[in-house]
Design a protein that fits this description.
This protein has helices at 5-37, 47-50, 53-56, 59-63, 66-82. It has five helices and no strands. The chain is mainly alpha-helical. The protein starts with a helix and ends with a helix. Residues 56-83 form a coiled coil.
Length: 86
């Protein structure tokens, strides 16, 4: 199966998002288990206390403009085009 660099990049981004979704699901499950075993009405616990997706994305990455991302994508495409795997 041959993928273009763009298809490969999209596939990797999707896989990363899938992994983050799994971690978020596990955090909610752990929260339910903790609540079932150690119920303390004085403490309220939120799924974000165990896993916060926004902490995974750095502030630098979030602050990038569309132009910066497009430039980086072009640089990556040039690198992949010049890459010789043979």
């Amino acid at each position: 199966m041959k993928l273009s660099p763009r298809e490969f990049q999209n596939m990797m981004i999707a896989r990363n998002e899938q992994h983050l979704d799994e971690l978020q699901t596990y955090s909610i499950f752990a929260l339910m288990m903790r609540t079932a075993y150690h119920y303390n009405p004085k403490k309220t616990l939120k799924p974000k206390d165990l896993f916060d997706r926004s902490k995974v994305v750095t502030e630098e990455e979030a602050a990038k403009t569309v132009e910066e991302r497009a430039k980086k994508a072009e640089e990556n495409m040039e690198f992949l085009q010049n890459l010789n795997l043979g």
